[in-house]
Specification:
This protein has 616 residues and is of the alpha+beta class. The strands form six sheets. The chain has an eight-stranded antiparallel sheet with strand order 13-14-15-16-23-20-19-18, with no helix packed on it. α6 runs antiparallel to α7, α7 packs antiparallel against α9 and α11 crosses α13.
């Protein structure tokens, strides 16, 4: 009965209109009512791009997609001059069985396919950008390669057949990358007929299922709205009768998604640093496109929300490394990979967004960030943005505090949209651009249940777990029930130390209040816990390395010390400690990667206060 009531409450939280959209979409596709089942299009014949008349750009093109490409920014895959097999997972060598099926006949999680994202990765057209960049710099060979690969792709992936047509967002990413290539090669206004036809058949795929994308309240909606807007405004230049409708639909949903999914302080609906980047890059590309093609500008409200989102990510990003807290879901997605900046370097995206929406330079001396603007012909802003400081984003439950070289993140539950991880009151600690107390990440969406439960669950976060259960019950692969609500938040105060706090009570009555005090060389965390039945376990996920653990028989505390002695974590309590030990945990900095990491666990069986002090 409790589970049924939890499901009903979640349904109400998701919104009945969204549920109606999703159910209507699935029923329409299954029954053949949705017109996406009746789509047909001819295979366009190239060339798709011709030689550019523009002069080279004074920055290097990306090095990827020469002899090697990186799946999800992490896994090297050998490439050749000839196109790849679009239906083979290079991570496992397995091939999609019968790829000639209509896309709706392919299951979302088909065991015979494995993780379909490994198939989709090559069909996101990152290589289109790489080849176009090198063609812009004068390479005739890369221009020819670009046309050969596009010709092979559309012949092998005939319109609306096979796994690469299954997802509207995947089609949208292709549209955005094709349009970006056209910009870099100066071929917007004189686009080849084959390129226009290729864009149109993608928009035909996106339009009939756009309501389902909007029902997700996530990056699917922002991506598909952007593709319809960009593709529609583009094809309108050539008199396509459908283009005005596509452009109007895209504009409507871009405006709607910005207002609905981005909070006043800039938090995006997915509560994820990487999905935030994906959304922000999408909006940045829309803004660049709008500048180039003209037409009525998007609203002031759209620009204001985009600027708030840019500032949110700027506050999260380490200026020296570009890395960010590994918070929320992360599927390895990255739009506009125009530089050789590592996958986890967010500075090019932040720099572009701050220039477009805030007219400020985020980073004065970051070559990949400057290169991002150069490739898109976006001028550098004259004003330098102030260094990232405090972020109090109560619109999504994120507080960032700073003191000297240290940054601490406190994550608390403010769920207007579905949470993807049970990470209430998780804390990240960064010192001089490096992560020392860290989030485990995501690993994979298509893996064994134990890993789905581990990486999305409470066990993989720096917080307290009550009675061996998650903070919220898992209802399905991507859905938790009994969404938590913060019952108090203390604003950021002070200079040295900088302080903040938050608290929640879960659906079974367990209560957790956490306060942070960030000094110049130490972080103190106090956890008041009560309302649980048998036990509570506090976890601190440490940076990989050799750590030792010592106990103090006088005051009952425990101290974890790094091998070089430069990092110390002392834990104590005003109640007896039942257990304190270093155990092996797991973390995932990249999609499909998991590596071992040390975790300090402190267990108690009574209500009380736990005190942790991390010194460096």
């Amino acid at each position: 009965m409790k589970r049924h009531w939890s499901t009903i409450k979640v349904a109400l939280a998701l919104g009945l209109p969204n549920i109606a959209r999703a159910v209507g979409y699935r029923a329409g596709v299954r029954l053949g009512i949705n017109k996406v089942r009746r789509l047909h299009a001819d295979v366009p014949e190239g060339p798709f791009f011709v030689g550019t008349k523009l002069s080279p750009v004074d920055v290097p093109p990306v090095s990827g997609w020469g002899n090697e490409a990186m799946w999800f920014g992490r896994w090297p895959v050998k490439t050749q001059d000839a196109p790849p097999d679009w239906f083979t997972n290079p991570m496992t060598g397995t091939r999609v069985p019968d790829p000639g099926r209509p896309w709706w006949q392919i299951l979302d999680f088909d065991p015979a396919v494995g993780d379909i994202k490994c198939i989709w990765e090559a069909s996101r057209f990152d290589w289109v950008l790489a080849f176009a960049q090198r063609a812009r710099q004068g390479s005739v060979e890369e221009l020819a390669r670009l046309n050969v690969w596009l010709t092979d792709w559309i012949r092998q992936n005939a319109p609306y057949v096979g796994p690469n047509w299954k997802c509207g967002q995947e089609a949208s990413i292709r549209v955005m990358h094709l349009s970006c290539a056209a910009v870099m090669l100066g071929q917007i206004h004189d686009a080849q007929p084959a390129l226009r036809a290729l864009v149109a058949l993608h928009l035909q795929r996106i339009e009939p299922t756009v309501q389902y994308a909007m029902a997700q309240d996530n990056n699917h909606g922002t991506s598909e709205a952007a593709a319809l807007f960009i593709g529609g405004t583009w094809l309108a230049m050539f008199g396509d009768a459908r283009a005005a409708r596509w452009a109007a639909t895209g504009r409507k949903w871009l405006e709607n998604r910005a207002v609905r999914l981005i909070g006043l302080q800039g938090t995006f609906s997915q509560y994820s640093a990487n999905y935030h980047r994906l959304m922000l890059d999408t909006f940045s590309w829309v803004a660049v496109w709008q500048r180039l093609v003209g037409g009525p500008p998007l609203s002031t409200a759209w620009h204001e929300k985009a600027l708030a989102a840019a500032r949110w990510l700027y506050a999260m990003t380490q200026p020296s490394t570009g890395d960010v807290p590994n918070v929320g879901a992360n599927d390895g997605a990255r739009l506009l990979p125009l530089t050789d900046a590592p996958y986890r370097d967010y500075r090019p995206s932040v720099h572009l967004a701050m220039a477009l929406f805030g007219n400020q330079q985020a980073y004065a001396s970051c070559a990949p960030a400057q290169a991002m603007l150069a490739w898109l012909d976006v001028p550098e802003a004259a004003e330098l943005a102030p260094p990232p400081g405090v972020l109090q984003a109560d619109d999504g439950g994120f507080t960032v505090i700073r003191n000297a070289q240290a940054m601490a993140l406190l994550r608390y539950p403010r769920f207007r949209f579905r949470p993807s991880q049970a990470d209430a009151l998780h804390v990240d600690l960064w010192i001089a651009g490096k992560s020392h107390l860290r989030d485990a990440g995501t690993f994979s969406y298509n893996t064994e249940p134990r890993w789905l439960g581990y990486f999305g669950g409470t066990q993989s976060h720096n917080t307290v777990q009550f009675d061996g259960r998650d903070q919220m019950p898992r209802l399905s692969r991507f859905l938790f029930g009994s969404w938590l609500k913060t019952d108090s938040v203390e604003p950021v105060t002070g200079i040295d130390p900088v302080t903040t706090a938050a608290a929640y009570r879960d659906h079974q009555g367990a209560h957790h209040h956490r306060s942070l005090r960030l000094h110049g060389n130490r972080l103190q965390i106090r956890d008041r816990i009560d309302g649980f039945n048998d036990r509570a376990v506090l976890r601190w996920r440490l940076a990989p390395g050799d750590w030792g653990l010592k106990s103090n028989s006088v005051d009952g505390s425990f101290v974890a010390v790094s091998a070089d002695g430069g990092q110390r974590l002392r834990v104590s309590a005003d109640i007896p400690i039942a257990r304190c030990e270093l155990v092996e945990g797991w973390e995932s900095l990249y999609y499909l990667e998991k590596t071992a990491t040390p975790v300090l666990e402190l267990e108690v069986v009574r209500s009380g206060t736990l005190i942790s002090e991390y010194e460096w």
